[in-house]
Amino acid sequence: MEVYSNENEQVDALRQFFANNGKFLAVGVIIGIAALGGWRFWSSHQEGTDKAASAEYQQLTSAMQADKPQTLDAVAKFASENNNTYGALASLDLAKQYVEANQLDKAIALLQSGLKDTKDANLQAVINLRLARIQLQQSQADAALSTLNNVKGDGWTAIVADIRGEALLSKGDKQGARDAWSKGAESQASPALKQMLQMKMNNLS
């Protein structure tokens, strides 16, 4: 089981994977349920569609700049028109821009939309973690805790524990925060993350 020290690393890995392998993403869904002739036609069409979406996504997000609203609008339009993994990645990238501009409601709406656009468990985990952080930033601790329950996979245990502890501490539950951070520190987390969680526990004393 791969363990992630932060969601940014996994976003980069997912983005590279989909950029390199977009043409293969839908193959498994179709095998066994389509006639040979229909499969060949669909495969050719889907390959072209995925390549086009991948190229447009990379072009738009590379040009995105906070001081150029038209570039943000272009990414938003792409995200709304592509109900697939590329649309989800675009929503994730654009939400980051909105967070930096302190437009948290817009960021939340984008992330919630992005969750509906992908079935990739790792990408869903990243989006949910970002969403929980923003909810916590908005003093919505209960909403953040609920969102964290949607993050699946042992590789995310420590990061989930970190955010969960912060949410519980914001509610005045010091023991709950300690328990969450302790669980994260005992997981297969990176040394740096374990040290940070231990420091947080020490600061509670």
UniProtKB/TrEMBL annotation:
The keyword Lipoprotein does not apply. It holds the Pfam family TPR_21. One of its GO terms (molecular function) is protein-containing complex binding. Keywords: Cell membrane, Chaperone, Membrane, Transmembrane, Transmembrane helix. It is found in: Cell membrane. It is a single-pass type II membrane protein. One of its GO terms (cellular component) is plasma membrane. InterPro entries: SecYEG/CpoB_TPR, TPR-like_helical_dom_sf, YfgM. Residues 15-204 form the Ancillary SecYEG translocon subunit/Cell division coordinator CpoB TPR domain. The chain crosses the membrane at residues 24-42. Belongs to the YfgM family. PANTHER family: ANCILLARY SECYEG TRANSLOCON SUBUNIT (PTHR38035:SF1), UPF0070 PROTEIN YFGM (PTHR38035). This is Ancillary SecYEG translocon subunit. It comes from Candidatus Pantoea floridensis.
